[in-house]
Amino acid sequence: MSQLVQLDGEGSSIALLVPETGMPLLLHWGVRLTAPLDNATAEALAVRASRINGLDESVAAATLLPTGGLGFFGWPALAGHRSGRDFIQSLTGWDVVRDEKSATLAARDDIVGLRLEINLELHPGGALTMRSGLVNEGREPFILDRMMAGTMMVPERATELLTFDGMWGAEFQPIRGVRPASLLLRENRRGRTSHNRYPALVLGTPGFSENAGEVWGLHLGWSGNHVVALDSLDDGRCLVHAGELFEPGEWIIDAGDEYRSPVVTMAYGAGGLESLARSFHAYVRHALLAWPGGRMRPRPVTLNTWEGNYFKHDVERLKRQAEAAAALGVERFLLDDGWFGCRDDDRSSLGDWQVDRRKYPDGLDPLIAHVRSLGMEFGLWIEPEMVNPDSDLYRAHPDWVLGVEGRPLVLSRHQLVLDLTRPEAADHVFAQIDAVLARHDISSIKWDMNRDLTAAGDRIGRAATGRQTRAVYALMDRLRSAHPAVEIESCASGGGRADFGALARAHRVWLSDCTDPTERQRIQRGASIFLPPEVVGAHVSASPNHQTHRAQTMGYRALVALPFHFGVELDPVGLSEADRRELAAWITIHKRLRPLFHGGRPFHRDPDDGRSLYGVAALDRRQAAVLVTQEQAAIRELPPPLRVPGLDAAARYRIRLLNPAAPDFIRQTAAQSDLLGGGRLVTGEAIFRIGLPLPALRPQSGILLEFESQGA
Ligand code: DGJ
User: Fold this and answer.
1) Domains of the chain
2) How far away, in angstroms, is 504 Cα from ligand 1 center?
């Protein structure tokens, strides 16, 4: 007898029919089902007739983790063999253990000698996680070629696809297209989450937008090689599988041993990307983030020393910068790359985690003490997984790097990757970083990782990316439990490691090395579908921008970074008096509004005539903040009225323009200036239904508006 398994969450449901033999059938994943479904009906709905010239028995296609060889002709999500035999796997005798929000499905293949387990769990906010595990119950090793973490099914009407590609400095670039009617594989072989293939996608009904259309999203929490496969079924529905990508021979499960997959997270939104983002954000907040002390404290405004100093560390200069930062209102001073070994550029010293006494004759303590005396926390940059050939560590242990005998060690940024699957290498790195953290008053680390993996083999020449990724996670976990008060920022040449696997261990991500606000908007937009604003690092950097050489006003730079985990990445001593005053004012505004930015309901509007919106409405609807930015020059005479969702229709709002310096309006009428100066109370309904007639802005400028309810 088949068994119906249905889990109902906030706005979403999954319904499965678990058969006697074969994989669990996916009946539904999407909007919450409200009328009860019973076993017999579920069975009737699951039956698919086989076609003429088809098999005499119908074979289920819409299943979790389909396997091949017995009539499923699509892309198998599980595949392997024993030295060339046992290439067919078929699971039988399902055991279901469940409670209201989760289910564990387990079954065996007695012919091959395998036990498969699939875990499903619904989370607050409606997201669903899946993961799988395979135990080798046979007497010989089982060679696992492929094992997905989970499968999402979308209905035939979900014909549009949104994926995120990119490169260094241009992460999270949205690629929108039509879902192919065949197989689409998105594979990442770079050994880290990558800038190029973010392990997430969205499928939706035609024309889905920020706030309209049905959308199904999937995210694989994994910082190594991955595959996301879209396999359209004959009836138009589509399976989306996500899991680790294995190199040949990478996973050989010894007798009695097991493979455990990463976690794949799925979300459904009935009201466009905004509703999907709400589920993903709730998941990150409830299931992943583990704050020191159990609760997030206000995200400290951070000064990162990188773009203001690069490798040129001078204690006195850094102290002056710390003073200038504190005067601006900065709360965390993070010392980036360049403080250890003999690191004057990126050619040496990774692996030698001792303070560079040439730059810091008395160690880091005098700088830390100075920073602390100014009322700021101190943070430190590290890149624990790496080693430069020009380092004491490499000279002592040249065999501790990932590599395959006889194959070239390809350098990237002059560095090699430590083989952390070797316990002695992992222990050594742990001891070094542990000592740095134990000896200093450090409240956060920026954990960087600056290269893709090549020839990622272990001592005996086996592919090791998956085990290396697990070893990195283990090292992070170990350091976190040794130093539970220390926060971690996950960085990999910018946003190369901003996935949920990393966020289960970190407290923020560095999204991109491109800090140009015009570019950053798009990067932040893509990431914000999955990541809540408080974990997204965003900095005001110098003008002209170091990556694009564009010059931009302080107001525009600050606005684009303001609603995220806000920071500064420039030499604050070198600021002009006007910029210094304006930046200090923006920091004050950020601090006042950060409970709203980091606790409200965000919404976006993609650029319309060069103008985009990012807004946040308080959960109680009493307050909202809206950032309007004009990235390119408009080609229409007037901007469309500003409509703000999330307000209380009956309440009357005072509207205030918060920019500390005069905005770059092309022309403003007296009525507009009165409206934006709080001179009129406007109902939430009028603001949403009629909209505000904003003045046009010059390109690369913007405004911040606050809406405060004065009651009905
Ligand atoms: C890459 C990071 O993305 C930068 O922010 C900076 O930390 C450098 N590495 C330092 O080498």
Assistant:
1) 3-288 (2.70.98.60), 301-599 (3.20.20.70), 604-709 (2.60.40.1180)
2) 21
Provide DSSP, 57-70. S----SBSS-B-SS
> How many whole angstroms separate alpha carbon 20 and alpha carbon 39?
13
Question: Is 117 touching ligand 1 by the criterion CB < 6 Å?
Answer: no
Centroid of ligand 1 to alpha carbon of 589 (angstroms): 28
Contact 126, 281 (CB under 8 A): no
In this prediction, residue 59 carries a pLDDT of: 85
Q: What are the distances in angstroms from CA 610 to CA 51, 57, 603, 712?
A: 52, 57, 17, 35
**pLDDT for 137-194, tens place per residue?**
999 999 999 999 999 999 999 999 999 999 999 999 999 999 999 999 999 999 999 9
Q: How far is CA 233 from CA 62, 80, 277, 361, in A?
A: 7, 23, 27, 66
Q: What is the distance between the alpha carbons of residues 331 and 487, in angstroms, rounded to a whole number?
A: 14
- Report the candidate in 502, 531, 505 with the shortest Cα–Cα distance to residue 291: 505
* Single-letter amino acid, residue 502: A
Ligand 1 centre to CA of 548 (Å) is 17
Q: Whole-angstrom Cα distance, residue 372 to residue 288?
A: 30
**448 catalytic per annotation:** yes
694 pLDDT more than 90? yes
**For residue 398, is the peptide bond before it cis, meaning its omega torsion is within 30 degrees of 0?**
no
How many angstroms separate the CA atoms of 438 and 507, rounded? Answer: 20
Residue 36 pLDDT class (50, 70, 90 cuts): confident
Establish whether 344 is a catalytic residue. no
pLDDT at residue 712 in the model: 85
Please indicate whether residue 513, judged by its CB atom, sits closer than 6 Å to ligand 1.
yes
How many whole angstroms separate alpha carbon 447 and alpha carbon 382? 5
Residue 494 CB–ligand 1 contact under 6 Å:
yes
Residue whose C-alpha is closest to residue 675's, from 696, 694, 649, 650: 694
Query: What number does the ligand 1 atom closest to the CA of 491 have?
Result: 3
Question: What is the arithmetic mean of pLDDT over 116-140?
Answer: 98
